[in-house]
Amino acid sequence: MMNRVELCFSPADFHLYEKNFELIVVIDVLRATSAICAALEHGVGRILPVATVEEAKAYQAQGFFAAAERNGMVVEGFELGNSPLGYLERAAALQGQTVVMTTTNGTKAIHLARNKQTVVIGSLLNLEALCQWLIAQRRDVLLLGSGWKDKFNLEDTICGGAIADRLITSGWFRAEEDSTVAGKFIYRSARDNMFAFLRASSHRRRLRKLNLNADVKYCLTPNQLTTIPVLREGFLVKLPAHEQGEVATGDAAQIQKRAPR
To answer: Are the C-beta atoms of residues 207 and 216 closer than 8 Å to each other?
Structure first.
């Protein structure tokens, strides 16, 4: 029997999609989930996503390294927000550390999905590794776009569409919702030049005004990372190699052999 993969455009619609889904992929391409993937791949020990700036400040007061972003900007009093390049620049200092993080959209979506059996983090950066792992799970998958303040956005839809397209093409998955079909075809329209396709998107315009084009280029360049962040006991950690299975050995061919003919 084929599994389902569906794409939910924003947290505001999560309640309409979540029934019967226990594996959730949270997506916030620009920039929270990209930053989470980059941070864990480059040595951060774990990340505690929190919903509010006040919670982050409370942890900061206890001596934790805390990061906070609102409306694309680092919140006053914090060293970092949700820039993946910021975590790369501080990689040496953050080795093995716990980072407390709050962002405008991404951590809200993670918080919303937190009671599901399995919550993993998706981005364009870890696209292929994540898709291989999802195919190997043989479970129904709900792709949750973080959107922008509960509204649809293009970049998360493109990433969700890319994942859905890959899973459906494997032969193991089907989609029933029009949102998933739309995401798949939006991704296919954008995949040859996502940077240009998103030139007029609302959040890219916001980030451009903040002089964050380097972040945008990094986040829109697929398959730079192999880390799959997973939520364990409230913390995001790097999925262990033995759980990543075939992805850890790079044997994608084994996954393809399972696909029905």
So the answer is: yes
